[in-house]
Amino acid sequence: MGGDLLASTSPKTSTCHLRDPAQASYTLGGYLEAVLITRDHQGRPKTHGGDLFRAQLLGPDLKAGVPGDVKDLENGTYLLSLPLLWAGQAQGQVQLIHSSEAVRVLRGIWRDQWATVDFMGYFQGPTGYEEIVTCNVNPLLIREEGSACHYRDEDSGPKPSGFYHQNMWHSLSCSSRSFSTADSVLGCLAGHIVHMMGDSTLQQWWEYLCDTVPSLKPVGLHATCQTGPLMAMDTTQGIVLHWRAHRWPLHSLRTPVASLHSVARELEGLAGGPRTVVVLSLGAHFTTSPPSIFVQQLAGIRAAVVNRLLQAAFADLRVAFVDAWEMTSSLALLDSIHPRRHVIQNELDFLLSYVCPT
């Protein structure tokens, strides 16, 4: 085990240098390129790729940041491309998330055990007898008969999407504006029904809107905050705001299975219309399961969206993407699955800019 560790990629012995000679200044809109050479814990050069790195260009004084692209040359060397999107000082940063050796271990766990965490199923009979068993998602059993505890759900380039400057997200794909006051949010959402389905990212959105807009009053549905459903209303402005968690895999406290709804089936049950806003967020809870589970979920959701597009009520349906990952990981902040309030505000500004472009 010790030998394997010494042979793994080390962030201390690996080195990084600019690809070209340093310049006194660089062209706005261009790229800063660097070469990363990996070594193991004994300082020996690595001869293969497969490491997971994260690169950023940061401007701490300007509260600016943008993710960079990492290209694996598959020989122990990586090419970093950092977009230059603001005027002023900037500094590059690269972080080793997982060595190639750790990646192989994780893939082995996914292949052999189907999960890096265990989900527990609680079965209780009418007499109070309870049985607890492990209930992990097994992609090999999808659409096949399994045990009573098997989870089944039949429905189921380097250019960054934007960057931060002065703590405000600037999208590179479309125009956006700020909704920093309760009145501006109300003016946009008046008469709308907003359905948020997914993980705690959208729960943070729901909570932010309720905190920012005093007239949005939560309605007690006697549900757990971790899974929902949660609802808030402004009866004067005709706003209804829903949130509920997606189905398994979902890391939560003990929750009735009936409370966890399929996103695809929820979409199929919506009437739709020009006053309906649907927001989906999936990803974080799937990181402990094989990627095939996430792909299957997305395929089911895609089919449901296509079905909606074929109906007259959704004939003019527009779809946009909020890159919450880049908006969360672009600044020099400690990693947190639940980002700070100003990140949530920027994510919601992007959503509201889409709902109310003018």
TrEMBL record:
Matches recorded under SUPFAM superfamilies: E set domains
PANTHER family hit by this protein: NEUREXOPHILIN AND PC-ESTERASE DOMAIN FAMILY, MEMBER 5, NXPE FAMILY MEMBER
Protein name as annotated: NXPE family member 3
Record organism: Camelus dromedarius (Dromedary)
Any Pfam family matching the protein: NXPE4_C
Signal sequence interval, chain numbering: none
InterPro entries linked: Ig-like_fold, Ig_E-set, NXPE4_C
Domain NXPE C-terminal: 169-310
Annotated Gene3D superfamilies: Immunoglobulins
Origin superkingdom: Eukaryota
